[in-house]
């Protein structure tokens, strides 16, 4: 389960300017689709529509054949996991941050998720900038480590659908590789829609969609796109 379909979706934030100009694509269950294109093309808008932060102007978006306009917001949020590019941590332990949204998750499940995301040793720590009443100070986590917290949270939540918005910021090669490995872990066998910036993601995607000014101008596997030049 977890098939995503966009059917001739049009969208405008304001009536003067159409942002998505009739786009159709699908992500079959368990497959991964990467959306690439220049800044301003409408890539992030696609993920915002999938979450129903906004409703489509026309056309429709379905998950497992059901129009998301008819799906309750909480079911939609339960079905979709997101690993944002900038993970903001709450003022509480890393374990709490991993539990977020699943307060009732058993301790050992939280630990397991942390270990798989390779932040096991940090689970009792507080994030940087925070201090307990007894003067204990938070730990400085790198960007990659913070993203691993988000990944652990997603592993714990285990949603059928994953939306990844990759960082555009320059990361060093080591951090990039670390993040990529963790993302591979979380997206395996899960329907994945990625707003892609990393070459490794694009190469590994089952389909790449090239978006320009709100229209799909090219689509295919990495190999197919290379052949066509
Ligand atoms: P991308 O992710 O490809 O860089 P976006 O989907 O973020 O593109 O944005 C597509 C276009 O929509 C841009 O021109 C952007 O300025 C515009 N846009 C984004 N968010 C809003 C908003 N909340 N209100 C009005 N215009 C917006
Ligand atoms: P749940 O439904 O389990 O409460 P969500 O899928 O709503 O969880 O959120 C999972 C994670 O994604 C949380 O860290 C949340 O803060 C973050 N998140 C949710 N919506 C957005 C968004 N629009 N942009 C960035 N992060 C988000």
From TrEMBL:
<protein>
    <submittedName>
        <fullName>ABCB family ABC transporter ATP-binding protein/permease</fullName>
    </submittedName>
</protein>
<feature type="domain" description="ABC transporter">
    <location>
        <begin position="4"/>
        <end position="229"/>
    </location>
</feature>
<comment type="similarity">
    <text>Belongs to the ABC transporter superfamily.</text>
</comment>
């Amino acid at each position: 389960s977890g098939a995503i379909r966009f059917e001739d979706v049009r969208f405008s934030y304001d009536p003067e300017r159409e942002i998505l100009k009739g786009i159709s694509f699908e992500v079959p269950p368990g497959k991964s689709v990467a959306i690439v294109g220049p800044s301003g093309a409408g890539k992030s808008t696609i993920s915002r529509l999938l979450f129903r932060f906004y409703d489509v102007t026309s056309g429709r978006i379905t998950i497992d054949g059901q129009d998301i306009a008819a799906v309750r917001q909480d079911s939609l949020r339960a079905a979709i996991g997101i690993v944002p590019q900038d993970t903001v941590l709450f003022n509480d332990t890393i374990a709490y941050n991993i539990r977020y949204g699943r307060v009732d998750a058993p301790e050992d499940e939280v630990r397991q998720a942390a270990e798989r995301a390779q932040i096991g040793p940090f689970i009792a720590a507080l994030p940087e900038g925070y201090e307990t009443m007894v003067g204990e100070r938070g730990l400085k986590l790198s960007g990659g480590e913070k993203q691993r917290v988000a990944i652990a949270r997603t592993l714990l939540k285990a949603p059928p659908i994953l939306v990844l918005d990759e960082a555009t910021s320059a990361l060093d090669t080591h951090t990039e590789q670390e993040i990529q490995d963790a993302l591979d872990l979380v997206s395996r066998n899960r329907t994945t829609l990625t707003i892609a910036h990393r070459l490794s993601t694009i190469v590994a995607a089952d389909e790449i969609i090239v978006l320009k000014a709100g229209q799909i101008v090219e689509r295919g596997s990495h190999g197919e796109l290379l052949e066509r030049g």
